[in-house]
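Notes from the 1:1 (GR / supervisor)

We went over the backlog. Supervisor wanted to see one worked example end to end before approving the batch request, so GR pasted a single chain during the call. The sequence is below; no edits were made to it. Supervisor asked that the structure be written out right there so they could see what the output format looks like.
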Amino acid sequence: MNQQVLAVRGVGGYRQYRIPAMAVTTSGRIISIYDARADFDDLPGPVDLVIRTSDDNGASWSEQEIFRKHEGISGFGDASIVIDPSYGKYGRIIVLYQWTRIAGFFESNSGTDLNDPLIAHIARSFSDDDGITWRHDVITDQLKDESTLGIFATSGMGGRISSGEFAGRLLQTFVLRNKSELLSAIGYSDDHGENWNLGAMIKGGNETAIAGLNDGTILIHSRATPHRISGRSIDGGVSLTVLEPDLALPDPSDNGSLTVLSNGDVICTHNHDSDLRRNTVIKRSTDSGKTWSSGICIEADSSAYSTACELADGDIGVLYERNAYQEIVFATYSKNEFQPIDSVISANQTTTDIEFTVVPRYIRPGRNQEIEAQLTSAPTVPEVDMNIFNIKERKEVGPAGGTTSGDSLFTTEELEKILGPITPGLHDGDEVRFSARISNQLSCPVVNLKIADRIGEMICEFDSIAAGSKECILDIRQKVTSDDVTVGTACFEFTLTGAIRNSKGAEISIFKKVVNFEIPVN
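Structure output shown during the call:
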């Protein structure tokens, strides 16, 4: 295993990097594209897409360059890369992504009018010379019907059918929003990505990985909780013959990937955890994704979106988010590093009597609220009722699974005044967000549970958790102080206290568990 950090928040002119997309072209060149944000927030907002490439299987990389540059409060984000090896001399690279102005996916109106800032669009970029030059356009009108309010392409990478009746068909999944529901759909193109259609709808789906198997069928994995949703199509993505949870793929509703190796094996990446964005793994299947017999742990701790590809030298490359989205990391693995799946999973499972796991989620930059209040002319994101969506379907801003609904939109210049200069590390007033889980693995209830932070303030409490049950706290907020900055390290401590109750209702013992985090300021 070899690792390289391709992006670090606060380095390279941006406060935050997120949403890794990656693919390997016909020449073996690795293309990586990801969000470069002026703030932490998702679209809408001033977000660029940046690109890095490698021509030596990831041993070295080009300098980070801007792929799509925002203007004002507009932004580009959530890229997905589709490779068509059958087009022209070098094959074709297609990048699909979202383009917003005032409204994002959750706020977008119906319609496809390019002049309406309240409509979020699907933009596209083509390269027919291995990524040297690009042409850009917008294809919202190809994919959005009257009943669809919001639509975007699942980030990461698309797929292709290589054999059978639909050989050459390009595949890309999309997430759709109507008035009260999120779902996903299989998109396909039979003319090298020029025109796209929507096929099978994936009820209950969200961001969905897709791959064309060697027998001509399609396999999908959609983010969902407590398990990823697996589906299959035998008619090129027009309909699904199977759509059900894969119990071997626990999931906290996070984006992963699917790809078919040159020998026909299938690999997927995802978080092997039903609640927390941690424990990112690669799993390998030798039976077209029916079972997952071996794997590799990429990152046991805080980690999120991931995209895996087979490299030109036969190794596997993974681009993923690590350490509360502080880094985007590229790692390579030899196929002989795969281990039996039971050993990979059990190595990071908690078998204690009462589990108390805390994971850092992200770092929200501190804001100068006085300056922010003075910018009264800033446009605002349209108001929407996010309560109709499951908490794990919403944006990861504001409260856990929150929204920018009603918030002001600022340019990069205005954000410089509100957030201060872009520099690496933590700053006085930054807010570190954590998620936690308490799991009672005893045969009796635990009661009077309390979680306190490093200064003894109560975070939350539960009267009881039954035997075999759990409770999750998705949004624990901790401020970085001037003392943390002076010392050079922010030390966060979380203390869980409670009591164990026997079958007769009597408290038989008191317990205490402590979790510590040390996050360097620089």
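Supervisor's comment: The radius of gyration is 23 Å.
Batch request approved.
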